[in-house]
Specification:
With 181 residues, this protein is an alpha/beta fold. The chain has a single domain, classed as Rossmann fold, CATH 3.40.50. 30% of the residues lie in helices and 28% in strands. The strands form 2 sheets. The chain has a 5-stranded parallel sheet, with helices on both faces. A hairpin with a 2-residue loop joins strand 5 and strand 6. The longest helix has 11 residues. The radius of gyration is 16 Å and the shape is globular. The protein starts with a strand and ends with a helix.
């Protein structure tokens, strides 16, 4: 049986980390946070537990143990494969290049992805980002893009996102509603 991975992607500020953290906290027997690595500097007020902080040399030494690899602003990112829990669904956060890299491993992992986008004026101004995502995932069967929020209420609570996710047919691909009960 293949290990299951849920990749959450979308533009900045759409609640990807918040959704991941909420899913893991609410359903610890079903989900876990996959360990990620980066070569970027730690940001002020950022937890040292958020990533494994690596030098570029350390990153390249372990590249064969990474999936969903990408480069953002000259910094390398990836998701570790040496700590996969085969009894749960691993959650990772990716950008479009990381998602495309992850999809190269469909023979080894069962991959399901969710794109989160706020339907707000700010997002509409960044429409090229959304088009980039849609072009790259078009035809990918285990992917669902959700447009949530509005100009009046741009932030959506994670509970609302989870409710929206569970209401979609694609959730039945993994019988997630059963896993979450």
């Amino acid at each position: 049986m293949k290990e299951k991975i849920l990749a959450i992607f979308g533009i900045r500020g759409t609640g990807k980390s918040t959704l991941r953290n909420k899913m893991v906290a609410l359903y610890p027997n079903s989900f876990y946070t996959m360990r990620q690595v980066t070569t970027r500097e730690i940001r002020e007020n950022e937890s040292k537990d958020e990533y494994d902080w690596l030098t570029p040399d350390e990153y390249f030494e372990m590249q064969d143990k990474l999936i969903a690899t990408t480069m953002v602003n000259g910094n390398l990112y990836g998701t570790r494969t040496d700590n996969i829990d085969s009894k749960k669904i691993g959650i990772t956060i990716v950008d479009i290049d990381g998602l495309n890299d992850l999809l190269n491993f469909e023979d080894k992992y069962e991959i399901f992805s969710i794109g989160l986008f706020n339907d707000t004026e700010v997002t509409r101004k960044r429409n090229s980002d959304i088009c980039k995502y849609n072009e790259n995932i078009e035809g990918y069967k285990n992917c669902k893009v959700l447009f949530l929020g509005s100009d009046e209420e741009p932030y959506i609570e994670p509970d609302v996102v989870m409710e929206e996710l569970l209401s979609h047919e694609f959730v039945k691909l993994w019988n997630m509603s059963i896993l979450l009960n």
